[in-house]
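Sample 1 of the test manifest.
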Amino acid sequence: MVQIVDISQSLYRIWSVGLRVIRQTKRDRRTVVALIINPIILMLLIGYAFSGTFTGINLGIVELNMGPVQENVLNHLQASNIFSITYLASESEARKLISDETLNGVVVLGKDEIGLILDGTSPQVAGSIVTVVEAGMQAAAMQILSQSPAPAQLPTITQHYVYGYDLEVKDSVGPALLGVTIFFFTSLNTTIGFLRERLQGTLEKVMVSPLNRMELVSGYILAYLVLSIAQSVITFVILVVGFKVPIGGNLLAVLVIVVLLSAGSLSFGAVLSNFVTTEFQVMQLNPVVTFPQTILSGAWVPIQSIPDWLRPLSYIFPLTYASDALKLTLLKGASLTDILYPDIFALLIFFVVTFFVATFMIKKEIA
Amino acid sequence: MSAELMQEPTKDKFAVVGRNISKSFDKLHVLQDLSVHIPRGVTYCLLGPNGSGKTTLMRMIMGLVKLDSGEIYVLDEPLDRISLVYPRLGYMPQQRPLYPDLTVQENLEFYAGLYGIRGQERARKIAEVLQIVDLSQTQNRVTGMLSGGMYQRISLACTLINNPDLLLLDEPTVGIDPVTKQSFWGYFRELAKNGKTVIITTHIMEEAERCDMVGFMRNGIMLAESSPDELKKFAGLKKRLQMKVEDPEHEMAKLVAEGLEVSRVGDQLVIEVTEAGKMRDILDTVMPVDFNVIEPTLEDAFLKLAI
């Protein structure tokens, strides 16, 4: 079948669907309030409530001057099973590897000073490094005190954050929660949106019009892009004004992430709508689908604290990449090229796959 | 049966032609070797009890349900090219086709947008369809708050927004008041007069009687397609003369002696009449106290054909 598609007509139809969805959302005051309140509540709750234990923290060690105390600290670090240790030659190399995200932190064992160079964007990970080093110091101090003659002065512990500031948990969780909020809000609303269209006669009526399935899903995407961007702006304001999180971000990169994530979440929600027949079922199904990836995405707790056997799941979920990309851009000022692979790439695949499954499934359920 | 009533269809004369359509869902035969011929510029009623396959057939005509076998042409296009005729179709589904949280104006704007109607043309078109359904003052009301009759009228307005050549209305008059119903039939006839084809499903016989053409359906079979009058004739139905008489036994004997078939209910005598002249003869013979001519209804025809 040869059909000449008039692009401007097609865009106008997409625009019509998008405008309609926005108008519907605007009229639903509760949804509008949820859009604003959700990120705040989530950030407060999760930011303050979460801490955990970790494994697989990538730790670098620079041995500058090894005395008995330094040996003791090193033994402690080696004995702890939460680190995978890399031995480095210099402090400058250490800093570089933290910037590259190869390492989560470095311990520099010097004569008078044990320096901790930590990744400021993962405060929980940094915290657990500090804990182990302090434990090592304490053990060493006990040993030294029991010896005579009187030992030399104990070295001091100093902490340096590579990003120049000491972030609290809520600060680093904030950007990742933006991803969670967009995913949750968008997928839930579109599942219900498409379900309603099916229960009403509207979907059937729309199908018997020049609007094709791809344009229908695109129209929804257009509307939810506007809503998601609005939500992002709100979250930024909360983060910067309310929580005083230092945002060092590249806004273009953030926009790309938000756009891809919300488009993917929307298509994902549209796919889900095919498996439900009532709004009650949506509420039951949604947590099953969204909770695992919310928890395992590294947004709430760092991926390092997730058990090894669960970690492969983290790498399947799109939210993992969105959280990572949002942290990198907002806190470390990463540019679009820095997060292209794997984050943007993964989000793009997520969007393309769900978009085509969503359009295909609309067709299937009608015919 | 339909072949006896209709001449062999030619494409341009018909808005919809379907031949030998069959469909089953889970081994249940919904439509069985059904054929349908819907001429252009008429009101055509798909009539049948619930579950007879009317809605399935209507959805098939729009390409929303796949055929197991058979073929359908809609405005000269086969079903695999159905999307080409979508700009010329107007569909009013049985379930609610409006967005309840939008205003009347916003619903109309949305549907207009799907057909690429914009700007001044859109404003003109919206005013026009609202005028057709006599609801020019409701633009800013939220659709979910409208009464049943108003809702249906706005649904119809949305269906008319693209000036469709073929309208498919699934039970459009369900749940609306008699006055609105009356005006709906006025719109339908007006549309047909302007060359539009209007397909309506219903299970209400009196409604079907108002259509130019009726397709009688039962258990997925098309029993007959024709005008209501011809259908009654086809079913062999005649007018009946009902007379109240003083001495029913005596009068009955007189009529039977003349070779007429008479039935008696209390003091009433009932006779089937074929010709008008015959009726006068009977009245002269019997001289009833009171009498009544009963016209056959579509319901009678349906019952007769369905058995």
